[in-house]
Amino acid sequence: MSTPRTVLVTGGNRGIGYAIAERMIADGHRVAVTSRSGAGPAGSLTVRAEMTDSASIDAAFTEVEAQLGPVEVVVANAGITKDTLLLRMTEEEFTSVVDTNLTGTFRVVKRAAKGLLKGRFGRVILLSSVVGLYGSPGQINYSSSKAALVGFARSLTRELGSRGITANVIAPGFIETDMTAELSDAQQKQYLATIPAARYGQVAEIAGVASFLAGDEAGYISGAVIPVDGGLGMGH
């Protein structure tokens, strides 16, 4: 059993973030989630936060620290998509996705870092995507933002690795969530044909990896990219 920690999951009001928060609660951790709307699972503290606004993130952390203590595990999961082909993609569609998915992660991890250093313990878990390294038509903005998280985690490992702080990346493949449910039947069939496991993943399968990375046994794993994609992105 892992030592109970204070965990913050961004975007913990639905999908993968919600499942990770649920699992962390089941593991005995004190769990807070950030959300723009809605709430995290029962037993979690929900705080409002906007990933594009440092002041909003700072306020969210201050609230969590007051109620649950210093944040020890950060799960940067909040993200958006604005899919369209390069020639049609506006600059705003590119920069807004990068601002939420990448710069938002920077804002969150920077705000957490002082507390992690003070406690000489930290687990930074970044949610990337198989398309970060595999690529996907119509997702130049999204895949760029997700690929960048690998460099982020590895640089953070080199900066803070000697202080008991790890930084790792989970790269989910096609997971059954609200986002995949929006795909047409033809698209779903097409994607399934490319996945060696021949099925979509479940949010609980992502949550299990996050649970492991947050735990005591993962203290010597840092700068890793862990694919949870049924074999889709092998070698990427």
What is the topology?
Layout: E1 6-10, H1 15-26, E2 30-35, E3 45-48, H2 54-68, E4 73-76, H3 91-119, E5 122-127, H4 130-134, H5 140-160, E6 165-172, H6 178-181, H7 185-194, H8 203-214, E7 225-228
Parallel strand pairs: 1-2, 1-4, 2-3, 4-5, 5-6, 6-7
Helix pairs in contact: 1-8, 2-3, 3-5
Quick rundown:
By secondary structure, the protein is α/β, with parallel strands linked by helices. The protein has helices at 15-26, 54-68, 91-119, 130-134, 140-160, 178-181, 185-194, 203-214; strands spanning 6-10, 30-35, 45-48, 73-76, 122-127, 165-172, 225-228. The chain is globular.
What are the key terms here?
236 residues, Rossmann fold, 7-stranded parallel beta sheet, 46% helix, 16% strand, globular, SDR, oxidoreductase, SDR_fam, 3-oxoacyl-[acyl-carrier-protein] reductase
Describe this structure in words.
The protein has a single domain, classed as Rossmann fold (3-Layer(aba) Sandwich), CATH 3.40.50.720. The protein starts with 5 loop residues before the first strand and ends in an 8-residue tail after the last strand. It is 46% helix and 16% strand. It has a 7-stranded parallel beta sheet, sandwiched between helices. The chain has 236 residues and is of the alpha/beta class. The protein has helices at residues 15-26, 54-68, 91-119, 130-134, 140-160, 178-181, 185-194, 203-214, and strands at 6-10, 30-35, 45-48, 73-76, 122-127, 165-172, 225-228.
